[in-house]
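Table S2 (text version). Query chain:
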Amino acid sequence: MAETIRALLERNGIACDVVGRRDEAAAALADSSYDAMILDRTLPDGDGLEVLARLRAARASIPCMILTARDALGDRVDGLDAGADDYLTKPFDLEEMLARTRALLRRSQLWTPTEVTFGDMRVVPQSSSVFVANACMTLSQAELQIVLALARNEGRVVRRGTLEAAAWGLSNAVTPKALDVAIHRLRAKLLALRSKVSITNTKGIGYALAVSEDD
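Corresponding C-alpha cell output:
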C-alpha cells in the first residue's frame, strides 16, 4: 500500500519518502524538512501516534494525516487530539487520499496545485513539463523536483542535500555527481527553450535560479 501511495503522489508531482517504523520516521523528520506527513498508526515498533505526539510536544507544525484501519470513534478522537490535521480510515479511495494530501500541503503554503513560475519559465507538475512562451520540454521526475524546489525558493540558494532529497528521496542512494548531472540537463533544456532563467552554482553549498534581462 505504501508503494502504491508513493507512486500516486509522485505521478502528481509530489516527492515523498517512505519509512516503515517509528524510529525511522523520527530520524527522517530530524534530518529533513517536510511539507506534510501521512502516518499509519499500526507500526512494527508501536503506535504511530507517539511519533506525532513527540512532534507536537516539540512544537513542530508539519501537517499530518492519519491513515489507518482503526475506525472507531475513540480512535479518531485520539488521533485528532494527538495533533493530527486529518484522519482517513481504510479502505479508502486513492483520489480522496490525494485530494486530502493536497489540502495538507496547502496548509503548509508550499503546494501550488497547477504550476510554478519564475521569470519567463513556467513549470507544470502534472505534465512534468517546463514552458517558455509556447515552447515546451518534458522533465524527468528528478529534474521536475529540482526545478520546483529552486523556483519555490525564488532566487535563494538551495542546499545540495535539500535538492537531492527532493529529487531522489532519503531512501534512494545516489552518486555524488547525480545532482550535477541533473542540473546540467536542466540548464541544457532551459537554453534550448531560450529562457532568460539560468541556474547558478554556489560552490560547495547549492544552486539557485537567476533571471537575465538581456535579450
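Notes on Table S2: The CA atoms of residues 18 and 24 lie 9 Å apart. The radius of gyration is 19 Å.
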